[in-house]
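Q: My labmate handed me this sequence with no annotations at all. I'd like to see what the chain might look like in three dimensions before we decide whether it's worth expressing. Could you predict it?
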Amino acid sequence: MTRRDLSQAESVALQAGRQLLASGERPAYRLKRVWGGAWVVREAPWLSFIAQDRPTARVAATRRIAELLECEPWAFDLDVEVIALSD
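A: Here is what I predict for the chain of 87 residues:
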């Protein structure tokens, strides 16, 4: 996937989230720990974070998603996938 494709994918995903908000619905996102301290938002894989624990990752993801969607942090759902990892 080229950088241009990723930008188009970003735009489409963000527009979908904004449309849900505008219609009164709550977009849903899932945060997943991928390895070590790295976390990624499944529905927006270009959004990744380094955090050593789940609460820190949740705060970082919530702030960034709210910023990108131009909404309040409580306007969407963010679930954290619980997985067992051996670091």
